Amino acid sequence: MGIPFFRGLREQLKLCFKVQNGWGIWVDVLSDAFCVFGMRILLIHADRFSFRVTGETTAALPGELDKSKSEGDVSEALVVFMAAEKGDNANVGSVADRVTEEVLTLAAQIGAENLVIYPYAHLSSSLSSPRVAVKLLDEIFTRLQSHNHLKIIRAPFGYYKAFEISCKGHPLSELAKTITPSGHADKADEAEESQAIKAEKTLESEWMIMTPEGKSAYSGPAEGFSFATRPNLQRLFRYEKSGSRISEQSPPHIDLMRRMELVDYEPGSDQGNFRWYPKGQLIKRLAETYVSNFNTRYGGMQVETPIMYDYQHPKLNLYLQRFPARQYVLLSDQKEYFLRFAACFGQYLIQHDMQISHHHLPCKLYELTHYSFRREQSGELAGLKRLRTFTMPDLHTLAKDMEQAKEEFVRQADLAIECLEGFGLDFEVAIRFVRDFAEQNKPFVQDLVSRCGRPALIELWEERSFYFVAKLEFNFIDALDKAACLSTVQIDVENPERFDITYVDESGEKQHPLLLHASISGSVDRVLYAILETQAIRMKRGQKAAFPFWLAPVQLRIIPVSEKFDKACREILSGIPYRIDYDDRDSSMGRKIREAEREWIPYILVVGAKEVAGGYLNVRTRDGAQRKMTLPELLAEIEPQMKGKPFLELPLPQDIARRPIFVG
RNA sequence: GCCAGCGUAGCUCAGCUGGUAGAGCUGCUGAUUUGUAAUCAGUCGGUCGGGGGUUCGAGUCCCUCCGCUGGCUCCA
Asked: Which of A85, A123, A632, A633 has the fewest CB atoms within 10 Å, counting from its CB?
């Protein structure tokens, strides 16, 4: 098939459908192609259609080609472009039946007697195996042949073909359909199914619990562990093992993220793409700065890479072939690009081009992926927990050998622990290993668990079915007892070779290093989810919610007893170098206190005649206590809470009377 | 994506079996100048998610699309 023809057709179709139906069929085909499994067919009623074979493809399996079938030319035909997608092999018979029915129905409606069956892989990016595709095409062909009034031309499978088409352009002349399998599997496919189940079984794993060494150390089956002191670890284990969830409520952070004017839905975008109000944006920026500081202090060299990549890039394409399900795809001129789902690609491509010697190892690249995109299924989205567009710190470390990889692994685990603690988050540890690796590295495993300082859930795989041999996860358990992974560190044994990343060793030989993937905090959006859920849990227990001081959008608020103290308040404002604001609105003090409490403001300073006369501050804190303090005393109390944490200015008007309302 | 529930003012929600929309909060205006979680009064504000249909008449019934939530699946 000639690419120019293909491009021309695509443009033409896009225009046709926009005019006729008001929506762009091609855009739809592209976006849906990554989440629906089925047979895709594109039906065109054509005045004329011709094709000729131009060469063999490498990906598919060309069969014997009869000279007479290498080209075709027909007038007044219904041309059926088809692509078999993964999933069809569940029941080839039923899919063939339904495709045949669709084709016959349309052919009758438009009165077409000539049919063209045209294998057209480009309708899908999630193709079935060529074997299944050919089988399906055979079955459809056989079924159609039984209708004697139809003349059928069949373009060969597994060849590049050029074609010309002249579409009639009437309302029924162009239709795109997806046929999904239904009914029970037929005999020939049962074997295939059970093979799939077999593959699934090798994924089965053993679950253990290992505790830090000590008096009551435990290392054994997860079922035999007493979870009495770690209820959340038990929740994680259940969640991982069974995947069952019980909840009719929506997660409390969703209400909080809106009520606190942090983040909100954006119906004007795609699902899972949120708008960030000033307070939320501030928290996000602080969190990003905080975690980036961990990465750069550790030696991560910060880079920035493109958010979109060539769909046809040979190396990236391999990756996508393996995980084809969920990308955003976009067109630029005639080329297809996918939006990155992590920083991996960009960094692999940089590392591939770098000159690296063993002197440079371990070599660490860091990026804050602002943004990463995953086209999650709509039903999988959940507030800030699961988004389609998210921000994530991504650190990639090249290591000389396994010893060095393990050494860096534990250092990164330490960073992750410190980082999550700084956010005020509790977490449960899960570590997943390929069994051989765990058995050959027992001291490493025990050391890792000890550093985490809590019992860890260990999963052991018999075989490596992903790119890593070891994966550490810190999981957060939310107010509805659901788990979400935050930090992770992984040892990748596959991608340096795939992306041809090399370093030069002591004897001048090129070697593939090992690669550590780490996200010190996990997704920044998800960190905010975890912070808000943590506060929801506190409130459920009757405690007051609070942001960690360094993250509080407003850290201090001055409330005057009356307008008369305006001047005194403004003097105090200028002497406090934190995010402080001033409630200068015309309302009662009681109301102002209430509103400040509802905003979780850590320090409320009430200023009236007594304070002005006495030269002290009256400080109300989250615990409800009121204390008389001097300014230096207050500053001395605040200072340690900011230690090692970033600071950014108040992103709102300081006078509240001048501040607009974003939500409510 | 599939199945289910939901979508009424900026926010939270009421509106029975179809008769043409209501409250509180917010906002605005005025009064009030307040001592630690809601001062009082007046007032603005609605293509009842979008489109189509049934009907003399639709927030209410039907279809369809969009969005949110839950479950399934998924989470490289």
From this structure: A632
Q: Which nucleotides of B are covered by protein (CB under 7 A)?
A: 1-3, 10-12, 25-27, 31-39, 66-76
Predicted-assembly ipTM surpassing the 0.90 threshold = yes
Q: Using alpha carbons only, what angle is made at residue A159 by residues A157 and A161, rounded to the nearest 5 degrees?
A: 110
Do β-strands A456-461 and A205-210 pair in parallel, antiparallel, or remain unpaired? antiparallel
In the structure encoding, which two tokens stand for residue A245, read together?
A: 């969830």
3-state SS track over A178-243 = EECCCCCCCHHHHHHHHHHHHHHHHCCEEEEEECCCCCCCCEEEHHHCCCCCCHHHHHHHHHHHHC
Taking the C-alpha atoms of residue A470 and residue A492, their distance in angstroms, rounded to an integer, is 8
Q: At what angle do helices A92-110 and A130-145 cross, to 10 degrees?
A: 50
Superfamily of domain A203-245+278-302+341-531: Bira Bifunctional Protein; Domain 2 (3.30.930.10)
pLDDT in tens, A602-658: 999 999 999 999 999 999 999 999 999 999 999 999 999 999 999 999 999 999 999
As its CATH architecture, domain A3-190 has: 3-Layer(bba) Sandwich (3.50)
Tell me the nt nearest to A258, Cα to C1'.
B11
Residue identified by tokens 């895709």 is: A40
Contact status, residue A374 vs residue A329, Cβ threshold 8 Å:
no
Distance A585 CA to B28 C1' (A): 14
What is the CA A627 to C1' B31 distance in angstroms?
A: 34
Length A20 CA → B21 C1' (Å): 39
Residue type, A514: L
DSSP code per residue over A35-94: T--SEEEEEEEEEEEEEEEEEE-SSS------GGGSEEEEEEEEEEEEEEBTTGGG-HHH
What is the tens place of the pLDDT at every residue in A554-591?
999 999 999 999 999 999 999 999 999 999 999 999 99
Three-state DSSP class for residue A119: strand
Residues A133, A135: Cα–Cα separation, whole Å: 5
Tokens standing for A55?
């060469």
β-partners of residue A339 are: A308
Element (H, E) at A265: strand A263-265
| Domain ranges (residues) in chain A | 3-190, 203-245+278-302+341-531, 306-339, 549-658
Nearest residue by alpha-carbon distance to C1' of B25: A664
Report the nucleotide nearest the CA of residue A604, measured to C1': B36
CATH number listed for the domain at residues A549-658? 3.40.50.800
* Fold equal for A3-190 and A549-658: no
For residue A94, how many other CB atoms are within 10 A of its CB? Answer: 18
User: Residue by residue, what is the 3-state secondary structure of A470-536?
Assistant: EEEEEEEECCCCCEEEEEEEEEECCHHHHCCCCEECCCCCEECCEEEEEECCCCHHHHHHHHHHHHH
Contact in structure between A565 and A582 (CB atoms under 8 Å): no
Q: Which of A510, A516, A513 is nearest to A497 (CA)?
A: A513
